[in-house]
User: What shape does this take?
Amino acid sequence: QVQLVESGGGLVQAGGSLRLSCTASGRTFSSYLTGWFRQAPGKEREFVAGIRRTDFTTRYADSVKGRFTISRDNAKNTVYLQMNGVKPEDTGVYYCAASRSFAINTYANTYDYWGQGTQVTVSS
Assistant: This one.
């Protein structure tokens, strides 16, 4: 079992920055990758970014390319999402998820472990 806890959410002005953290715990962390998803009110949960545990390969949704950066610190079992130049459309609950697959999947149902989510609100 892997437990994931997100932190760092809050209220931020459009154009500002925010950094989310996802810390994994448990006896062993066997997942191959960690991804960030978000869900806005009235919308489906969507893939934001993902990173492989072994080679740090990353993948981003088109909507956040050039603005968001995903990274990880394996010594701390923590994955980060640096959000720069945020827009009101970025508002939503952000979830950290871990997958045992070898591919950076964009579909939520391919991930095995989920955090509780952290709210990000971007004001105009």
About this structure: The chain has a mean pLDDT of 93.
